[in-house]
Predict the structure.
Amino acid sequence: MSAEKRIRRYLIACLSAIIAVALAVVPFAGSASATETKVALNAANFPDPAFREYITNLADVDKNGFLDQEECDDVVEINKPLATPDWSSVKGVSYFKNLQTLTIISGIFESINLEQNTNLVHLTIDDSDLRSLDLSKNKKLDYLHILGDPKGLENLQLPQTGTLSLLSIANTGVNSIYLPYAGNISNIDISGTPLLAAYLPSGSDFDGYTRKAGPLVAKEIWYNPFEGSYDLKKIVPWFDGSKVSNVRGAAMNGSVVSGLKGDVTVKYNYATGMGDIKPVILFKPQVLPESVEQIKNTVTEGQQPTLPSTVNVHYTDGSVKALPVTWDSHDWAAQKPGTVALSGTVSGTSLEATAVITVTQRPYNVIFNSNGGSAVAPATVEAGQKAAQPANPTRTGYAFAGWYTAKNGGTRYDFDTPVTADVTLYARWTINKYTVTFDANGGTTVKTATVEHGQKVTQPAAPTRTGYTFTGWYTAKTGGSKYDFAKPITADITLYAQWTANKYTVKFDANGGTTVAAATVEHGQKAAQPANPTRTGYAFAGWYTAKNGGTRYDFDTPVTADVTLYARWTINKYTVTFDANGGTTVKTATVEHGQKVTQPAAPTRTGYTFTGWYTAKTGGSKYDFAKPITSNVTVYAQWQPRIVFRDVNDTTPHREDIIWLADNGISTGWSLPDGAYEFRGMDTVKRQDMAAFLRRLATKYGIAGAKDFNPVAADWKRFKDVNSKTPHAEDILWLAKSGISTGWQESDGSWTFRGMDTVKRQDMAAFLYRLADRAGKTSGVTSKTDFTDVTDKTPHYKDVQWLGGSGISQGYRNANGSWRFEGMTSVYRQDMAAFLHRLNNRLVQ
């Protein structure tokens, strides 16, 4: 950009700002709109982002992304900042009806619509791509600059008013201007334009008509010849009248032409030293509008006059044309009687039309607002006359109380008063009140209610009636329909309570007996006594009012409420007889139904061992004392002859333990051919015999599945030296299954039990500990750790120490008072009897 152009832009921007400030202080009408505007600051309303950002910063005071009416009205000046991106569009400018100044320096838009900006006074557009510009609606425009190089601008339509004072269209493509009414114009700059025709006001006294040196083109200048003479230098300062020829009857005095009667071509040369260039000026006589015929009309006050859409315009040549006219707005509804001179704008001229309207006094309207009642026709009354009182209106549920001057309040209207203005009278009403009577129909009393017409009666609290349930309020004592309390009251009414007799449930709680069905009994009736229920082990004792306690129910009593009756029972008692079957007497026991009989102390019988109480004298099954008693029962003692070992006497070590072992079937010793028995207490215990002893003891207490163990094929494959012919084979397999003894693994990987090997004391300690552990009886023992021959290298040393601490085996006393265990010593049968008996005592704890 050249320095000259930059300076010019700067000066234009400064001048625009000065003019904008001056214009901003000039008030003008129409700054507020009756309709509120809500304009979104979006791409639909403002497509160009830079223009949208400028408007947002300029006008969006409350920063909400919208422009309200006040914000739009406050925009009177838009000046594009120099150092901002070019505006490609100024769409959205139409929202600013009060805009007075618009300055755009650098833009890339081809058109701009300013039809809505009718208050625009100052317009500057510099360096744009503008192609056309229509300013015909901008009739307040005073200052127009179109600068820069918009060579494409060829179509420029200017406002046909006298307000324009400065026109600069330098360096544009405009080839004609039409300004016949621009009487105030003082300067026109067409530098660098191909202007061919200029229609200017006759007698204009403007300061300059600027055209820079350069190639010249022909000009066509119109003016009004009926104004007398005209000095062409006012339009073309370099005009040289001495070169003029062929004026065809017109007088040419220097540069002043006069007496033109028709079109004429005036040929001349420019006195510029540029050669004999002969452009053309064409003068055309113009016929201009001169006056407008006045319109007259008469209307009645409050009416709007009918005004013509055209008026007759008289021209300077004596002709008359009907031209469209736009009349100024006027509030005819508020116009008082008198004369109104209404102005109008005549299309295509600067002339003003006038309509003189005479407004005459009108009669007054008396309007009757029935205020919800029947309609009453309005009346028309001449000024000063009285209005006739109409027939009273009617309104359902109301009594008419007169005509008033206000809907609420006011004063009662006097129909003897002369009418001097329009008046609206309002019917006043007194609402009817109705009585709602509540007939309780045998129930407790309910108060009568008074309700205004159209209101709803409040549903009262339900009445009560002994033995009955209230079902609601009805329109009849019996039958009728249920009353709807949401329904407005429009007359006196009686409502009736209706009732349903209560039905009560009599429940029979058999209290453990057979089920008795509940009964339904109406209020005041008696419940039928049902058949007695039954209950195993009990005798029925009657129906009572409580599960425990209460009173016996009287079935002759009327039922007045739900009731639950409870069966009362007397428990059966049974006799349990203990038949000692040759033993010492055991007392008979009395036991209530469902209870368990306490097992008595075992009877004794000389030469026999008591084996338990059974359901039969011989055979039968062992009696289960955990079983509830449900009838009389006799249980029988059964005995087995006591085994007497001939090799066991009072001096035999552990004699009592040996006898216990035999009495409990754990070891019965050897039966000899003569019928006698030997225990052989000093024989060592074999491993296969020990398996039998341990399983029999485990079976006695239900330990590790000993009782129900039945070996399967896999069990028989465990030991290669155990088969079905091995003594106590199944006991050995149970011992392995329970983990009490797993035998030995041979070098070939197989396992053996070695049933005929003797049991060593340390192995016995392990077997006994493991059996106690399977029974959960190893806790609470303080291990005996002072055996002199037991260390942590001793096999099963922990089991040995537990055995010592439990008291099952304390070992042997040394001479110095210490103890030894002798773990590798074989176990003798009499010692084994003591160990097992002591373990048994621990198992029963």
Summary: The CA atoms of residues 316 and 627 lie 142 Å apart.
